[in-house]
């Protein structure tokens, strides 16, 4: 049986047994907040009470929020503050005392209103009468490494409505303990609630500073701490990555790092001194550290005496070594998806994987020593990979989504549903354009589109298997619509669950798995055709890209004709000298006298008479100098036998193709 789509959520929940798991509230809501607590003034060493009433307007989809605050002073007076936050524009507008102050958010990311994914379930209590009260689930989250606080979140058991959020720890240099109570919550927003008042028109950000009272924006939305953590650390995300992508660039550094004497294993300072003999800039220093760690994985794990998990050992060693060379780095914990074996219906998920982020050239970049040490063929991929590719298999379990390092952070559900692309495919630029979900409901058939911009993919093949392990590849049709694009059509022969595995040669040595999909076929065609087995890929011939570019659009690679007569046109950039060849796939006979072509400055017309019922292969040739180049292969199915009348269009192919 195919596993449920939420396999990653199940992996996280498995660590908590049968306890409730962290949940999310609606993306749009309005609520009254009562903020009560106190702090110790670090200068006077005296306690100060905190009492603030707020009205919160939150729209995660529009990436906007507004907070109207009333702060009660010790003398009984109040101060009114209104804050408009626009995460798309990356600005916050604060209206205080009749003045509008605009500040920059510095690439802050709006957080989804969820209980922190790393929270632990505490228990369930009933609020109000025991017989008809409201059931409340409580969670705790240790955020001491992020915000120097510990948090407790309480939500209703049935629909995750927030009830209260408590935090205690050191914030802005003072020990504070604050509780936020949610009241009058509705899942709607007033009309034009985010309309910017005229007082802020024409006011531009003059300083890059956090918005007023960052604790409110960072903590009360059930642990969404974006701006406080990002502001001091992330000087810029998604900048130009300093890696070059070619192993030859680091060949000298790599060789030097791998030859480090074992006597340096226990002395980080001596090891860095050794690296610096060949590594003069920061990128090469980080590369040397990375290569040394992945080359000495087993030794490092033995020295740690298995007191910690292996990924954590490597990540902490990376931090220790980068600290010596004066480069900032951090450890990130999250989920890691890896390809499954044939007995499983989904990716293998590690729910406690560790990797590093490192600050280079003014930006944060990723390094994964554990994955880099697992397979030599992808060790360079895990050294400063593109975050947009890295997020396909790695999801930080952190309330701060900016550590995804992508322009548009994704949710855990989106990560779970996304198809897994192999590292070797991503290294070579191969991507899956569609579908966007790993598990698909299929009505009769499904198209899967693979993009190969560098034209490195060869011998592409697809395996369609049912739950009983049987292979049904005769119901898969692969076409190349242009030199860089493959379209795979799968038509399951019966209702049920299928696995679609896309493979191909990405190197000269072996067939690699590119991606896998799960097809939940709910309806099938009345008659499902079996495609010829001896021909795997149809459409454009990629060996001659300079010649193929003269074709403007390609007809449907698979065509059906009812009366035995094929007639199709292909747009061209100029008049071409073309020829065609016809083969009946029933017995392999060549029927070139049954096909003809004619060419004009803007198109090619292809006509053929198909004498027998069944499949035919049509090959189109273009002449260059004295040679004929095959540029297009079409598969045609004829439903009815006809007479053998041969079309005569300009010239016969027989004279050329004998």
Automatic annotation (TrEMBL):
Superkingdom of the source species: Eukaryota
Pfam families, sorted: Ependymin (PF00811)
InterPro entries linked to this entry: CAP/Cytokinesis_protein (IPR052557), Ependymin (IPR001299), Papain-like_cys_pep_sf (IPR038765)
Signal peptide: none
GO-annotated biological processes: cell-matrix adhesion
Example of a GO cellular component annotation carried by this entry: cytoplasm
GO terms of molecular function: calcium ion binding
Full protein name: Kyphoscoliosis peptidase
Protein's organism: Magallana gigas (Pacific oyster)
